[in-house]
């Protein structure tokens, strides 16, 4: 297959490109190379790169020519940035999705939308979201992702586009931009910097290795049914548990932990029922605490040349805006 992977220079997208190339597929990457896009993530991987915006129909047509399938990873993805400014999130995650759906409509390409468990909003202890549950997004990010999902479902029903949606849990692994919990706390711990835990740190997330997430997305690409949604869950842990495990694995001192002002609208708990994806044969291979997180910490320890340059320049300005007064307060 010739597959258009949008956002392929980002974290999960680059793992997916590597997986497709190993499987013998031809890959075209369409990526705007925002702060989160990094061609170094694809170094040594055979692919064609088109630098452009998924919300630009001309770039989309150029990149998508001759492709049998489109897998859309391209998005603004960080909840905290969406709270600072939602506009880019609507541009990419809603309008960009629509432009890619237009391509699928015109060419008949198979389409997979990479979405998120955050569209269900937060859940009471004991509940797990199923694919047909109502959407209750809390943040500008998750609202934009929910908007993208609704566009996909409308294009299936109205125009007969052959599209499916995946809704994955919190993903971790190598090459994740150091703004999300795991890479931020691992790199801060390695640098002896504070670990800013929002609120009481008792929020629960499901942790899913990037390679397991990509295996599920590829399965849906080949075996998923049009108009169907597939959840992909992980191992649930409280943020503080994850924080203490990172301290243990990096050898950093627990005094680095700072409880800071909470995220606005912060979801307490995500959890999904992923029986539908498992029924297609999906089984995650990585255990978060035993192998996945230790291997990820090792990767950051051994790849300072990848993340140290990122944590300067524009990153510093973002970090100051997000954390300076929190850490002082
Ligand atoms: P990321 O932020 O690491 O990468 C996003 C990529 O999209 C970057 O390469 C960026 O340059 C590109 N991009 C952004 N706007 C673009 C535009 N307008 N046109 C073209 N390219 C653009 O993201 P990630 O964490 O790898 O997430 C990938 C996808 O998976 C997203 O759709 C996200 O919503 C979804 N998802 C992420 C997680 C997670 O925990 N990271 C979990 C579930 C679902
Ligand atoms: O659930 C899937 C989602 O997971 C994806 O759709 C998003 O793209 C991805 O960013 C992630 O969203 P979260 O908001 O859950 O991830 P984040 O790493 O930002 O935060 C994880 C938890 O850690 C959350 O409860 C907030 C908390 N946190 C995060 C940061 C960055 C802190 O306590 N301190 C921090 O500095």
TrEMBL record:
State any GO BP term from the record. Answer: nucleotide-sugar metabolic process
Q: Where is the NAD(P)-binding domain?
A: 4-290
Needed cofactors, names only, are: NAD(+)
Give the EC number(s) listed in the UniProt record.
4.2.1.46
Annotated keywords? Lyase, NAD
Query: Entry's InterPro entries?
Result: dTDP_Gluc_deHydtase, NAD(P)-bd_dom, NAD(P)-bd_dom_sf
Which domain of life, per UniProt? Bacteria
Gene Ontology terms for molecular function: dTDP-glucose 4,6-dehydratase activity
Its UniProt entry gives the catalysed reaction(s) as:
dTDP-alpha-D-glucose = dTDP-4-dehydro-6-deoxy-alpha-D-glucose + H2O
Give the family from UniProt: Belongs to the NAD(P)-dependent epimerase/dehydratase family. dTDP-glucose dehydratase subfamily.
- What PANTHER family does the annotation carry? DTDP-D-GLUCOSE 4,6-DEHYDRATASE-RELATED (PTHR43000)
Protein name in the entry: dTDP-glucose 4,6-dehydratase
Q: Species name for this entry?
A: Gaiella occulta
- List the lineage, top down: Bacteria, Bacillati, Actinomycetota, Thermoleophilia, Gaiellales
């Amino acid at each position: 297959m010739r597959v258009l992977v949008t956002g392929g220079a980002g974290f999960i997208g680059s793992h997916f490109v590597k997986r497709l190339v190993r499987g013998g597929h031809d890959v075209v990457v369409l990526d705007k190379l925002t702060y989160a896009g990094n061609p170094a993530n694809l170094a040594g991987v055979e692919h064609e790169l088109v630098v452009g915006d998924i919300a630009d129909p001309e770039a989309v047509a150029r990149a998508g020519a001759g492709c049998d399938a489109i897998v859309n990873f391209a998005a603004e993805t960080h909840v905290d940035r969406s709270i600072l400014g939602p506009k880019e999130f609507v541009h990419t995650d809603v309008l960009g999705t629509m432009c890619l759906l237009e391509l699928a409509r015109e060419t008949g390409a198979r389409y997979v939308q990479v979405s998120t468990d955050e569209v269900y909003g937060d859940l009471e202890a004991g509940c797990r979201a199923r694919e047909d549950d109502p959407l209750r997004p809390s943040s500008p990010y998750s609202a934009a992702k929910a908007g993208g999902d609704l566009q996909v479902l409308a294009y299936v029903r109205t125009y007969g586009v052959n599209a499916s949606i995946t809704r994955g849990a919190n993903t971790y692994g190598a090459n994740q931009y150091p703004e999300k919990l795991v890479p931020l706390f691992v790199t801060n711990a390695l640098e002896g910097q504070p670990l800013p835990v929002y609120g009481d740190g008792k929020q629960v997330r499901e942790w899913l290795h990037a390679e397991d997430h990509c295996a599920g997305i590829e399965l849906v690409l080949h075996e998923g049914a049009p108009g169907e949604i597939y959840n992909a869950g992980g191992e649930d842990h409280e943020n503080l548990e994850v924080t203490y495990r990172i301290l243990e694995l990096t050898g950093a001192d627990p005094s680095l932990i700072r409880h800071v002002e909470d995220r606005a609208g912060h979801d307490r708990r995500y959890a999904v029922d992923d029986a539908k994806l498992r029924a297609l044969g999906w089984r995650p291979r990585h255990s978060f605490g035993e192998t996945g997180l230790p291997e990820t910490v090792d990767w950051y320890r051994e790849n300072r040349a990848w993340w140290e340059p990122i944590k300067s320049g524009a990153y510093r300005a973002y970090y100051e805006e997000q954390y300076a007064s929190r850490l002082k307060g």
